[in-house]
């Protein structure tokens, strides 16, 4: 009687294999994920001559170097070039379509992509037209990915710039398009001097319409930003939120002590949209090794893995996961937990979230775990 072969072991946790794992992404900026070659081509077509390089490789290197200055303000300056080439229907649709293609090729099965419509009006488009053409691009990209054998769902978040005064208008825009692909609202931009409470009327409009929103908070600015986002504004999620560790102390014996705000964030299961590579680039944390992702994960905060800006950080979801796994000795079960965290926190209906978790995420990771 022959002996049955031993069960296969876990797949190697390396970049090619992680690319095959189903992933969910909650925090990715459309204008931070362009292909360098696309930036060059769109700049040529629209007559933009302000790029710092004229070939794709050099341009990609410039974005990564400029974004890695350790300053959030300098990091944000790189977007002037990508936004400049996203001012036409063709440019918006192409960038959105290619975004979906790149994420699908990286094994992402669900993604929420955010952008600020108010930054794309320089050539005469209206806010509604900007959103319309971007959603068309997402639809085209989703259909093309499906034809290529990649099933991916995209939700769009409309972002208002926190230093401007159009947040209520953008919130109304998000509600107006929420049955056509927009799943939520966000505010972004430099935190210092621009507290989220300045935009209370926008958040009140979202709540009045039973609509979802996240807030960039706790990245460059500390606990006051997080407290306002939650206590005054009622955020469903925290964009980054990495500075919640300012309210956590760790004793010499490894025991963690949580302050009232940290306890509240954990108790309420408020998702943290952590972006490891970006957090290092902007100076929110000193290095990946000292990133509090692992501390927060061990303390059972609802941590999620995100890219933030794939062009500026020269990264992908798979690369972020591999970096975390290598740094903190994570296995497939850990990556599965982070992915399920993201799907639980997505701004789509509960049955849709559950379907992705049960039919895509769990079977996918079970296969990889062996």
From TrEMBL:
It holds the Pfam family A_deaminase. Keywords: Hydrolase, Metal-binding, Nucleotide metabolism, Zinc. It comes from the Bacteria. SUPFAM superfamilies: Metallo-dependent hydrolases. Binds 1 zinc ion per subunit. Coiled coil: none annotated. Its EC number is 3.5.4.4. It catalyses: 2'-deoxyadenosine + H2O + H(+) = 2'-deoxyinosine + NH4(+); adenosine + H2O + H(+) = inosine + NH4(+). The record marks 240 as: Important for catalytic activity. Its cofactor is Zn(2+). Zn(2+) binds at residues 27, 29, 216, 308. Residues 22-362 form the Adenosine deaminase domain. The active site is at residue 219. Substrate binds at residues 29, 31, 189. It is an enzyme of class 3 (hydrolase). InterPro entries: A_deaminase (IPR028893), A_deaminase_dom (IPR001365), Ado/ade_deaminase (IPR006330), Metal_Hydrolase (IPR032466). Catalyzes the hydrolytic deamination of adenosine and 2-deoxyadenosine. Belongs to the metallo-dependent hydrolases superfamily. Adenosine and AMP deaminases family. Adenosine deaminase subfamily. This is Adenosine deaminase. It comes from Rhodococcus olei. The gene is add.
């Amino acid at each position: 009687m022959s002996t049955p072969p031993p069960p296969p072991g876990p797949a190697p946790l390396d970049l090619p294999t992680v690319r095959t794992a189903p992933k969910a992404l909650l925090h990715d900026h459309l204008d931070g994920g362009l292909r360098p070659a696309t930036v060059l081509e769109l700049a040529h077509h629209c007559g933009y001559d302000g790029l710092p390089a004229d070939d794709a490789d050099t341009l990609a290197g410039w974005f990564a170097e400029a974004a890695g200055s350790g300053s959030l303000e300098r990091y944000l300056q790189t977007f002037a070039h990508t936004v400049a080439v996203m001012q036409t229907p063709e440019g918006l649709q192409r960038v959105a379509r290619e975004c979906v293609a790149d994420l699908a090729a990286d094994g992402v099965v669900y993604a929420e992509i955010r952008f600020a419509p108010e930054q794309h009006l320089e050539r005469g488009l209206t806010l509604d037209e900007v959103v319309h053409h971007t959603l068309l691009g997402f639809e085209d990209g989703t259909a093309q990915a499906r034809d290529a054998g990649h099933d991916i769902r995209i939700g769009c978040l409309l972002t208002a710039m926190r230093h401007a005064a159009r947040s209520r208008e953008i919130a109304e825009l998000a509600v107006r398009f929420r049955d056509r692909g927009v799943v939520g609202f966000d505010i972004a931009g430099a935190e210092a001097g621009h507290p989220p409470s300045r935009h209370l009327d926008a958040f009140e409009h979202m709540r009045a319409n039973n609509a979802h929103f996240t807030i960039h908070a706790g990245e460059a600015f500390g606990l006051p930003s997080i407290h306002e986002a939650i206590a005054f504004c009622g955020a469903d999620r925290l964009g980054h939120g990495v500075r919640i560790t300012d309210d956590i102390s760790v004793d010499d014996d490894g025991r963690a002590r949580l302050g009232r705000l940290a306890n509240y964030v954990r108790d309420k299961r408020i998702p943290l949209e952590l972006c490891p590579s970006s957090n290092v680039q902007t100076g929110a944390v000193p290095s990946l090794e000292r990133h509090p992702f692992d501390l927060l994960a061990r303390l059972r905060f609802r941590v999620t893995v995100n890219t933030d800006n794939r062009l500026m950080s020269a990264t992908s979801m798979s690369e972020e996961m591999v970096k975390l796994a290598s740094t903190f000795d994570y296995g497939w079960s850990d990556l599965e937990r982070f992915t399920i965290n993201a799907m639980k926190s997505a701004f789509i209906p509960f049955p849709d979230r559950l379907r992705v978790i049960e039919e895509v995420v769990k079977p996918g990771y079970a296969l990889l775990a062996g």
